[in-house]
What we know:
- By secondary structure, the chain is mostly helical.
- It contains 20 helices and 3 strands.
Amino acid sequence: xxxxxxxxxxxxxxxxxxxxxxxxxxxxxxxxxxxxxxxxxxxxxxxxxxxxxxxxxxxxxxxxxxxxxxxxxxxxxxxxxxxxxxxxxxxxxxxxxxxxxxxxxxxxxxxxxxxxxxxxxxxxxxxxxxxxxxxxxxxxxxxxxxxxxxxxxxxxxxxxxxxxxxxxxxxxxxxxxxxxxxxxxxxxxxxxxxxxxxxxxxxxxxxxxxxxxxxxxxxxxxxxxxxxxxxxxxxxxxxxxxxxxxxxxxxxxxxxxxxxxxxxxxxxxxxxxxxxxxxxxxxxxxxxxxxxxxxxxxxxxxxxxxxxxxxxxxxxxxxxxxxxxxxxxxxxxxxxxxxxxxxxxxxxxxxxxxxxxxxxxxxxxxxxxxxxxxxxxxxxxxxxxxxxxxxxxxxxxxxxxxxxxxxxxxxxxxxxxxxxxxxxxxxxxxxxxxxxxxxxxxxxxxxxxxxxxxxxxxxxxxxxxxxxxxxxxxxxxxxxxxxxxxxxxxxxxxxxxx
Length: 498
């Protein structure tokens, strides 16, 4: 078989893998939105079957034979080189995992998701703990199989989401900013800020109208995606031209729902920007890493949609939709309320200063769970202890504590750190964009599409041609620098709150 023949077959297999991923995403999306209570068992079997078939393609003998023939250095184009690299990386990982383990993790994830929903609703850790214990055992086995001689087990899980990143590197990055973040929270969280108007009843239909207007201005193409409601907001790609986002309207503040929608919209813009041209329909039509993906959602959510310049343009529209709720509320009062720093128990509703502390908590606990230094039964109290240490309070119950996130139900250990890494990536990209564009002028005039087009050209269109760190360095021409984030925060919040 020639290199050309081998690559053409590799691309065919890769596109089949992506189709299976999209089918699995469709089933998972339906589970979140409309699955019946008694449909869980078969849905788990469906997802397990898809996961097993995908595993066969990714790590089967044909894939191995093709990769044995192919040489990245002889690839004719950057696309071919990146696809070979990506498929080789996945093959080398997946070939270590037996099919029954892959199937078990998928099936257990579907079951654990349902018990997590019930446990959170009933505020009862015991409803979820048994399913979670089974998942932890599966994840430990997976980590042991994936781990190379120079990795710790957590490294192997982290590498699935942030290629090339090590636990010690994350610990160092987090450690370099933790003190500054705690200090900022201590300094600013006691500032008197009026927020009562954000907690009044806001008609959901008008909330959605406002969010859809901003999404459209951002460049979200509703011909290629949609907006729905679910318990936990998320973005999923169920087709190359079908990128769906969800939000919720159950949070106490109107800004919580809006921020969630814009956050997920940022993810969707990345997916839409990557899903075009030569890479469309392949595994390269994706984010360069989970951290880089998160950088875009948090850039749009916080650095853009919570900026004073943004609200100079959008507050009049918001007031027109909600005249009673915003009566006698000045623009300055509204901006300070939107950016209020406080010690909140819920990660997804946390302000941009304290948010990364929530991630540091989860990063620490995941390592303890994996190495067995904290048991499943001890986890709620361990969560509370770290919350007291990092954020200065104790959650009222397990639903606003250890049960608040869905991620552990699917065994996604190593995922949480990418949220805070996204803050670091995002600040560096935002600084770079500010050197190239008159961002504040664009925001004041509502020209969000200009910013989107710039980000699409610089970042989104590259897809997963390179790793997250490589993409950051190629765009900004510098290595990851955590001080970009703390400098951004210090500048913004000093101007707002002194």
